[in-house]
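Design review, sub-item: ligand-bound model
Attendees: FS, YL, KQ
YL presented the inputs for the iron/sulfur cluster complex:
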Amino acid sequence: MSTILEEVNGVFRTRAIDVHVTHVCNLHCDGCKHYSNYNHKGSLEVATFREWISAWSRVLEPKRLHLLGGEPTLHPELTKFLYVAREIWPRTVLHITTNGYFLDRHPNLLQAMIETNARLSLSVHSKDPAYLAKIDPIREGLRKHREETGVDLMESDETEVWTRTYTGVGYSMKPYKDNAPRESWTHCNAKYCMQLHDNRIWKCAPVAYLRMQLEKFDLTTDPDWLPYLNYKSLGLEASPDEMREFLSRESELVCGMCPAKPPRILDKTIDWKGGFIASKPRAAAKAS
Ligand code: SF4
Ligand code: SF4
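KQ shared the predicted structure:
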């Protein structure tokens, strides 16, 4: 199934686009498809976001725009993204995906959501009692606000659907070698989550942020990853035919890096301080 829903006067109406307002996250969810568990840095300026989506709005109109990361509430100007997005894409459903930890840093968020008709989804990542004790009051707060304001504040339970798109951790990261891109794509729960990153459109998060991740762990010359690093994202220089072809693609070579039968992870760790280890292997450490 194509990500294009309709094409009107040269504008492709597509399913969804994700934007990292920041790569930073406070949690370490083992196997995060955005690699946000690896302590990446960098946030998007609101002005840059405006520039990007203004340019893309001439050819694209997503049905849903997801503001996420990383953890979007770590961006001090999160609410401004909502107003900019609403101004440029009046019909798009605006959606914030958050782990909830820092909602209290944005006292104006609820009002901004009312004014821009936005939604928020709290991702629930673990059944660990210590974690649930932390987020249960947040869930309760959202429930109360939902009842009082009618704003769409929902939960997304990630505990039963979590999968990994690679093996290993950090320096030992490797793509899967199932060599069955069609099967990988068919079973993929990220296949309609295109990313707007570096002012280009990418198939999904594991592809969009792959270079950033491999650079951090000195893996850009690893022959196992090279075929996937050659992936070509979509830029504004593309012709309408090239855009149509890109947006209509289903499985492709890059899907070969993902598992054909994604293993369910029911006991993932979420705590960065709770034992995440990605140390440099001894041989690589000596060489640098
Ligand atoms: S909360 Fe977990 S899944 Fe969400 S961005 Fe952070 S590390 Fe990734
Ligand atoms: S590369 Fe393909 S299979 Fe892997 S996450 Fe992206 S869309 Fe899914």
